[in-house]
Design goal:
With about 100 residues, the protein is mainly alpha-helical. It is built from 3 helices and no strands. The protein has one domain.
C-alpha cells in the first residue's frame, strides 16, 4: 500500500504538471467565445479535482509512513482510491467534449 501510494502521488503530480502545460497550449482564450469558456471551465474543474486528490494522496502517503498508519487510515486510503477512479472517469466525457466535439 505504501508503494502504491507513492506511485499514485507521483502520477498525481505528473497529471497536475501536464494540465498546467495544457493550459498554456490552449488555442482559445477563456473569454474569446462560448467554446473557449466551456473548455476553460471544464479543464479548470478537472484541474481542481486533480489538485485536491493529489494533495490528499500526498498527505495519506506521509501518514502511512508514520505511527498513525492503522485502523481508520486504511478506509481513508480506500476512499482516496475511489476518488481517483472518479477523477479519471470524469476525464473521459471532458476529453470527448474538449477534443472530439469540435471536430464533429
Amino acid at each position: 500500500m505504501r508503494r502504491d501510494l507513492v506511485i499514485m502521488s507521483l502520477i498525481g503530480l505528473v497529471a497536475v504538471a501536464l494540465r498546467l502545460y495544457e493550459f498554456t497550449g490552449l488555442a482559445v482564450r477563456w473569454d474569446q467565445n462560448a467554446y473557449g469558456s466551456i473548455t476553460w471551465v471544464l479543464l479548470a474543474l478537472h484541474f481542481t479535482h486533480l489538485i485536491t486528490d493529489a494533495g490528499d494522496t500526498l498527505v495519506l502517503t506521509a501518514l502511512m509512513f508514520t505511527r498513525h498508519a492503522k485502523g481508520k487510515r486504511f478506509s481513508d486510503v480506500s476512499d482516496n482510491a475511489f476518488y481517483w477512479y472518479f477523477v479519471v472517469a470524469s476525464w473521459l466525457p471532458i476529453y470527448l467534449v474538449v477534443y472530439w466535439l469540435p471536430r464533429w
